[in-house]
Design a protein that fits this description.
- The structure holds 3 protein chains of 3 kinds.
- By secondary structure, chain A is of the alpha+beta class.
- Chain A folds into 2 domains: 233 residues, P-loop containing nucleotide triphosphate hydrolases (Rossmann fold, 3-Layer(aba) Sandwich); 103 residues, Nucleic acid-binding proteins (OB fold (Dihydrolipoamide Acetyltransferase, E2P), Beta Barrel).
- Chain A contains 9 helices and 22 strands.
- In chain A, the strands form 6 sheets. In chain A, strands 6-7-8-3-9-10 form a 6-stranded mixed beta sheet, sandwiched between helices. In chain A, strands 2-1-4-5 form a 4-stranded antiparallel beta sheet, with helices on one face.
- In chain B, strand 1 and strand 2 form a beta hairpin.
- Chain B is built from 12 helices and 2 strands, in the order αββααααααααααα.
- By secondary structure, chain C is of the alpha+beta class.
- In chain C, the strands form 4 sheets. Chain C has a 6-stranded mixed beta sheet, with helices on both faces. Chain C has a 6-stranded antiparallel beta sheet with strand order 13-12-11-14-20-21, with no helix packed on it.
- Chain C is built from 8 helices and 21 strands.
- The chains are: A alpha+beta, B mainly alpha, C alpha+beta.
- At the A-C interface, helix 6, helix 7, helix 8 and strand 17 of A face helix 5, helix 6, helix 7, strand 16 and strand 18 of C.
């Protein structure tokens, strides 16, 4: 178990002066459940491989509990990793798979056996301990990969690299909630890399959002949802993501396309660059009063409906309330408390 | 309901059927025909029934003794080749680079022996191992080791086996390398994280993942070595004495040297059946063990 | 164009791989095959494409039987989960390849490729090689190649599964427009209920080699004909509770009693209710169900509470951010009006009126 810290960490690939990861300082608290969220190519897997030691950073240091491990190899860092595609040792039984890391480290048989059975219990693998690993389903194989990390009581952190990619939706729920339960029982630092916002938000206590080799925001799921620090976060978190409307701001009034004036919850000083009003579809509803819009399409998500509308030519996603038919003259009602102003993509802090 | 299959498609197979009939079936039938007859030179044939087969399978007869001697020699040769080439091939495959320019270079280098015609391989080794002008033969003798493949059986065996290893290990290497390349990186990374030693990685990942290609490699190498003819014939001519007279060489001696077509035909049928049986048993057991593992 | 499967089935070694399927596929809309891995989606796709021969049944395209016809002679295009493009050809040539094979005129090819590229927003990338593009653009190239053929039948096997979540969202929004603009019949296999709903066409749910229901997505979601359909078409998984129907009442294993909807026969039955229709707050007329919290997952604006209800795993979606402690006892409120009741045979015995609502 460890607190992991990055000091001026940066990385680039050989033969290129560009940064794949821009210089960063960061701390992963001991026993925290973190998600590393971003689109492919944002550097999240690179970051994960630097933590595990599969990759040496070009600059900066990695500290485990204050100890510099930058130059240490993977096997000496005591991290465990679960990969996108389940890795099990085909010829071995589930029990032998789980015992493998202990055997490699020369743990006495009796102790290893007890440890394996304990972990199998945690993961619900007890009944299949003596079955061959290769014949199991993808979800059980992922549990085995995770189990190989958990059997070591000295494990500093468990890293997950998009572990649910090949798992069917129904089993995802089961596996994810089990993972979360597990984190409560075994307080170990967990870092979970994914491009799927639902997975990130539901798994993590803190979500690290990355874009183009940079961390753009770190926060709780609520914080990322309520106050995205960057328009990228607003767009990336939420399904559909946050709406952005180009506007001009005068004090506590925003002037939207078409000249519509909207009262803001706060007042703003002079703003530079491209100014936008951001509001989530959850807080914008089709109504009988409000801004006039054209409804392009209604998406039925089963438990809610999203209206794809246009507000003076700007596409916008809004909620169509339960039981409501699209009105003849649809209007858009925005929740004033949930509006944010962004200048050049960054959240502007207002007053009041 | 309209006919889903167009039976005219069978016409497309006809040329192949004709070709196979001509190239395989007819010669085989001829051999079967010869095997039950005795011949005396000028195309006179007499019915001999299963006579040749009885004689052949009875080690106390002249023909039988000769056949079994050759058979054990051939089996020993195959066993030696497999025992050396398979572990060596795996070993070399493991040490090959996984990326970079070295990959192409080593693969081309490895493929070279496979591209040389068999009789040329024989000729190369015949010269290479000669004690007077051959680089290998002269060097070994220069070291004070008595080495003459034309005189001592052991030297002949060493030469023949070494030649086969030189010629064919590359095939095992290439097959194993292909198997190794198919292992995703995540497996190696996981093994690193699990603290596995190289030996543990080999046992837990590489060997199981190579199982299929190894099956093919062993099968190919067995068939080839069991039927080897050209190379030892060129180098030792089956000698000294009969020390390196393998089944195929013996067969040719009987058929062409003595022109005993009946004996030779019976022998070649038995020879063929042995190869088929061994391959079938080997294939059946390995595929069964694999499918059992899947269930 | 129309495509109709009439009792299409496949068996192998005496075992049914796919039970007889009868479908009238709809043009201009996605016909989604929804089911978990191994349910028979790919098997059905291959039968529709003509890659495999059905052991029973017939297939009609535009009223003409095509059952035994080789794929080459059928008008079929396919898009796979992996992005399959010719790596050495430009995007333009990739899209043009089926037309070149068909021997079309140069000007005709040019026109059709431009048109497909416009639909899929690939115009800026026509000169590039596929591997220089993002995953989403690569898959769009593959889709463009399938569209440009103007095949009667376009089959897509989990085409978005290998894409990033946000890209998937984007393409899910674009695809229905493409489907509407083209006259082809589209069949789209996926494991994700959310995707089936978003694409908004017709859905065939598959479970264990059987098509359990076929109809408009919303209707199948809200009125599943049986338990397997409800299970397949539910994300989070369907919450289930065994019960007994007795004289117009449903008695749950916990002893709780609720009025049975009309049409439920006496005997064993299963109550199914979706995560968003269970409440943690008391509702008028609702039945209380004791539960123990396993874990809570916060999505930012909502919380999924995983609980254990009489030994069964339930998921409850509740608005707002809540963090109940694991092991905490809570009461779930079931509105009988929102419960689906399935008889002992698994058939939907009655739809409650409010289960229909969004």
């Amino acid at each position: 178990m460890a607190r992991i810290a990055f000091e001026r960490l940066a990385h680039g690939y050989p033969g290129s002066s560009a940064y794949a990861l821009k210089p960063m300082d960061m701390v992963w608290e001991d026993a925290g459940a973190y998600a590393l969220l971003g689109p492919s190519g944002c550097g999240k897997t690179t970051l994960l491989n630097i933590v595990s030691g599969l990759l040496q950073p070009r600059e900066g240091r990695v500290l485990f509990d204050g100890r510099d491990v930058t130059a240490l190899s993977t096997e000496r860092r005591n991290v465990a990793q679960v990969f996108q595609f389940p890795v099990v040792y085909d010829t071995m039984t589930v029990r032998e798979n789980l015992a493998f890391p202990l055997r490699n480290r020369g743990v006495p048989q009796a102790a290893a056996r007890a440890r394996v059975e304990h972990v199998a219990g945690l993961l619900g693998l007890t009944a299949m301990l003596d079955r061959r690993a290769r014949n199991l389903g993808a979800d059980d194989k992922q549990k085995i990969s995770l189990g190989r990390g958990l059997v070591r009581d000295d494990v500093a952190a468990i890293l997950f690299d998009e572990p649910l990619t090949v798992i069917d939706p129904h089993l995802k729920w089961e596996l994810r909630s089990r993972l979360k339960e597990l984190h409560r029982q075994v307080p170990v630092t967990m870092i979970y890399v994914t491009h799927d916002q639902t997975e990130a938000l539901t798994f993590a206590d803190r979500v690290v959002v990355m874009s183009e080799g940079e961390v753009v925001q770190v926060g709780t799921p609520e914080a990322l949802f309520d106050r995205p620090a960057h328009s990228f976060v607003g767009h990336f978190i939420g399904s559909p993501g946050m709406n952005f409307l180009p506007c001009a701001v005068e004090g506590d009034t925003a002037i939207l396309p078409g000249g519509h004036r909207v009262d803001l919850p706060r007042g703003y000083g002079a703003l530079a660059g491209k100014v936008e009003l951001g509001i989530r579809p959850e807080f914008a509803a089709i109504a009988r009063d409000g801004l006039p819009v054209t409804v392009r399409r209604v998406e039925d998500l089963g438990r809610r409906r999203i209206a794809r509308v246009e507000l003076d030519g700007v596409p916008f996603a809004a909620t169509l309330p339960e039981g409501m038919a699209v009105p003849a003259e649809p209007r858009l009602a925005l929740d004033p408390a949930r509006m944010h102003i962004y200048a050049d993509g960054r959240l502007a802090t207002g007053e009041g | 309901m309209s006919k889903p299959l167009d039976n005219r498609a069978w016409f497309l197979v006809l040329p192949v059927v004709a070709l196979v009939a001509f190239s395989a079936l007819i010669p085989v039938m001829t051999v079967v025909n010869y095997s039950v007859q005795d011949s005396f030179g000028n195309n006179e044939f007499f019915w001999n029934g299963t006579g040749w087969f009885k004689e052949l399978l009875d080690p106390s007869t002249d023909l039988g003794g000769r056949f079994f001697d050759a058979l054990w020699r051939t089996l020993l040769f195959s066993a030696l080749c497999l025992l050396i080439e398979v572990p060596l091939g795996i070993g070399v495959a493991l040490t090959l680079p996984r990326k970079g320019w070295g990959v192409a270079a080593s693969l081309v280098l490895l493929a070279l022996p496979l591209l040389i015609p068999w009789n040329v391989v024989g000729t190369i080794w015949q010269v290479f191992a000669r004690r007077d002008i051959g680089l290998l033969g002269a060097a070994v003798n220069g070291l004070g080791i008595e080495y003459n493949y034309a005189q001592t059986p052991l030297a002949a065996w060493v030469t023949v086996v070494a030649m086969d290893v030189w010629h064919w290990t590359s095939l095992v290497v290439l097959l194993c390398y292909a198997g190794l390349r198919a292992i995703p990186d995540a497996y190696y990374q996981a093994a690193k994280v699990d603290g596995a030693s190289s030996w543990a990685v080999f046992r837990a990942i590489q060997l199981p993942k190579m199982q299929r290609v190894l099956t093919i490699a062993i099968l190919l190498r067995f068939m080839d070595s069991f039927m080897i003819y050209t190379e030892p014939f060129v180098v030792t001519g089956g000698g000294p004495g009969n020390a390196t007279t393998f089944l195929s060489i013996d067969l040719v001696k009987i058929a062409l040297g003595q022109f005993d077509l009946g004996k030779a035909a019976a022998m070649s049928i038995v020879y063929n059946l042995i190869v088929l049986t061994v391959c079938w048993v080997f294939f059946a057991t390995t595929t069964r063990s694999q499918s059992e593992a899947v269930q | 164009m129309t495509v109709r499967a009439d009792g299409l089935a496949l068996s192998s070694g005496g075992e049914a791989v796919l039970h007889p399927v009868t479908l009238e596929l709809q043009p201009g809309l996605p016909n989604v095959l929804l089911g978990p891995t191994g349910a028979g989606k790919t098997t059905l796709l291959r039968l529709l494409a003509g890659l495999d021969r059905p052991s029973e049944g017939r297939l009609f395209a535009e009223g003409r039987e095509v059952t035994g016809q080789p794929v080459r002679r059928r008008s079929v295009a396919m898009v796979y989960q992996q992005f399959i493009n010719y790596p050495t050809l430009s995007v333009f040539e990739n899209i043009a390849s089926p037309l070149r094979v068909a021997g079309l005129k140069r000007t005709e090819i040019e026109g059709r490729v431009r048109e497909a590229a416009r639909l899929l927003r690939l115009e800026p990338y026509l000169a590039r090689r596929p591997l220089e593009l993002s995953g989403g653009q690569q898959q769009r190239t593959a889709i463009a190649r399938a569209l440009v053929k103007r095949a009667a039948l376009v089959l897509m096997d989990e085409p978005l599964a290998n894409l990033d979540y946000k890209l998937r969202e984007e393409l899910r929004e674009e695809l229905p427009k493409l489907f509407a603009e083209s006259g082809s019949v589209f069949v789209y296999a996926t494991t994700e209920p959310a995707e089936a709903l978003l694409l908004g066409g017709f859905v065939a749910t598959l479970s264990e080699g059987r098509v359990t229901q076929f109809g408009p997505a919303g209707a199948v979601f809200r009125r599943p004909t049986d338990l397997p359909t409800a299970r397949v078409f539910s994300d989070p998984p369907l919450n289930e509770a065994p019960a007994r129907a007795e004289g117009g009442r449903l008695v749950l294993a916990t002893g709780a009693v609720m009025p049975a909807p009309a049409g439920v026969a006496d005997g064993a039955c299963t109550i199914g209710i979706r995560a968003h229709q269970v409440s943690l707050e008391p509702l008028p007329g609702a039945v209380a169900l004791p539960a123990v919290v396993r874990v809570a997952e916060v999505t930012g604006s909502e919380t999924y509470v995983h609980c254990s209800v009489g030994g069964m795993d339930w998921v409850v979606l509740t608005p707002g951010v809540q963090r109940p402690e694991p092991g905490q006892e809570v009461t779930l409120w079931l509105d009988p009006q929102r419960c689906l009741v399935f008889g002992a045979d698994g058939r939907l015995a009655a739809v409650a009126p409010l289960a229909e609502a969004a």
